[in-house]
Amino acid sequence: MARSINLTSLPPGGVAVVLGATGGIGRALVHAVARSGRFSEVREFGRSTSPAVDLLSEATIEETAASIANSAALPRLIVDATGLLHEGGMMPEKSIAQLDGAQLARLFAVNATGPALLMKHFLPLLPKEGKSVFATLSAKVGSIGDNQLGGWYGYRASKAALNQFVRTAAIELKRRKHSAVCVALHPGTVATDLSSPFAKSGLALQSPEEAAERLLMTIDELSADETGGFFSYEGKALPW
User: Fold this and answer.
1) CA-wise closest residue to 44 among 63, 62, 28, 20
2) N vs C: which end of the chain shows fewer Cβ within 10 Å?
3) pLDDT at 238 exceeding the cut of 70
4) What is the DSSP letter of 30?
5) Do 137 and 80 contact (CB within 8 A), yes or no?
6) 4 in helix, strand or coil?
7) Does residue 1 register a pLDDT over 60?
8) Which of 152, 153, 165 lies closest to 230, judged by CA?
9) Rg (CA), the chain
10) pLDDT, the chain, mean
11) What's residue 3's pLDDT?
12) pLDDT tens-digit readout, 143-165
């Protein structure tokens, strides 16, 4: 049974935004955020919403951010639940011999450049006072320090690049908005289309609903001192 996460660390009455809301985790986040009752409005965006968000088009990102800027309340919570691991015939590389320039460009465009542009247009919307959060879904395999298995070159590298964008943006954000938090979160292995081809038999998978609840619990516990960090869905700091 789905639980309600109250998100009491965030001032009440603001707007919550979920980007990538048509994906498995994104949909679950929308529902979990709405159940919290903490926000005056929950806005959800994806490639099929109006306005639509396409990470390959900065114009759509700018248009979506403008629609939030025109809301009656400021955004207190923004969660980017976008990401790409595989599509069509494109699968993670098992060896360096499989590297392909077009595939690498595609992964970096969706997993790093797109979220960086989201930060460009959405971070300025966060309130100057009181806690607010921008969280983007990264991946533990993006950790350089934790990499013991190799492989998955493009996905690992694009998520590592995302982590650097988060870290750098958080430093700049803190100069203007001292209570704002900008973080990268690892959601764990979740039963979604993204991870289903790689779920090992017998591996305990989280449901999207469980993952959403744990991510929001982690967000609720984060302080401004932890901005720019990389955390698991359990709230534990991960190595870069």
Assistant:
1) 20
2) N
3) yes
4) H
5) yes
6) coil
7) no
8) 165
9) 17
10) 94
11) 73
12) 999 999 999 999 999 999 999 99
What's residue 141's pLDDT? 97
Per-residue pLDDT, 191:
85
For residues 20 and 80, the answer to whether their CB atoms sit within 8 Å is: yes
Cis? peptide before 197, omega within 30° of 0: no
CA angle 225, 157, 100 (to 5 degrees): 160
Whether the CB-CB separation of 218 and 32 falls below 8 Å is answered with no
Which 3-state string (H, E, C) describes 97-156?
A: HHCCHHHHHHHHHHHHHHHHHHHHHHHHHCCCCCCEEEEEECCHHHCCCCCCCCCCHHHH
Instruction: Show Cβ contacts of residue 51 under 8 Å, excluding neighbours closer than 6 positions.
Output: 45, 60, 63, 64, 67
Name residue, tokens 């966060």.
Answer: 126
Residue 205 is predicted with a pLDDT of: 83
The H or E element containing residue 78 is strand 75-80
Confidence class for position 235, pLDDT limits 50, 70, 90: very high
